[in-house]
Specification:
With about 200 residues, the protein is α+β, with helices and mostly antiparallel strands. The protein has five helices and nine strands, in the order H-E-E-E-H-H-H-H-E-E-E-E-E-E. InterPro entries: SprT-like_domain.
């Protein structure tokens, strides 16, 4: 999908930002039906292109915000390499810079919320009560996360068992099962329910 085909989903005056961020990258943008598990998604494809999916039901400002979040993954990986954490400091700094660059896109009542969020960008949209309230996303429930999006010592539930992340071995995660005291290895894209 070309950038201009995205216009109907976006607020006005976003194309100059997107053209700069897209640069020479080959990006497949897929507009999906509403998903209860996520608003958007980024993947690097085997052929070195990039795929971003975004829910079609999002309001224009939220659509742009989610697209910015996903593009920040692409730019962080391209600038800092594939070994960085998906929502680590490199991604946070990239996302922060992009939000501040494009702050003019957002309405006056949303700008303070975006500025506050940009000070410490969160991986999960639902972690920002101000944004959730602004966009009235009460029905959105993100019950699962990829284990690679969690931090060391985070607790999570997998198949009704509680675990804590102890560390990383190469690409996989070593996790202690709180219920039986045994250690297990989890792949980065294992879907788990994070405990707060």
């Amino acid at each position: 999908m070309s950038i201009t085909n995205l216009e109907k989903y976006l607020p006005e005056n976003t194309l100059p930002f997107l053209k700069t961020w897209f640069g020479e990258h080959y990006i497949h943008i897929k507009i999906t039906k509403a998903r209860n598990s996520k608003l958007g998604d980024y993947r690097k494809m085997p052929d070195k292109s990039h795929q971003i999916t975004i829910n079609s039901t999002l309001q224009p400002q939220l659509f742009f915000f989610v697209l910015t979040h996903e593009l920040a993954h692409l730019l962080a990986f391209e600038n800092f390499g594939n070994r960085i954490s998906p929502h680590g400091s490199e991604w946070k700094n990239t996302f922060r810079t992009m939000l501040l660059e494009s702050i003019s896109i957002y309405s006056e009542d949303l700008k303070p919320i975006i500025l506050k969020f940009s000070k410490a960008p969160k991986a999960n949209f639902m972690s920002s009560p101000d944004l959730v309230k602004y966009f009235h996303i009460e029905n959105y429930e993100d019950e699962t996360s990829y284990i690679e999006d969690l931090e060391t010592e985070d607790r999570f539930i997998y198949r009704k068992q509680t675990y804590i992340i102890e560390g990383k071995r190469k690409k996989n995660y070593i996790c202690l099962n709180i219920d039986n005291g045994k250690r297990y290895i989890f792949k980065p894209l294992a879907r788990v329910e994070k405990l707060s």
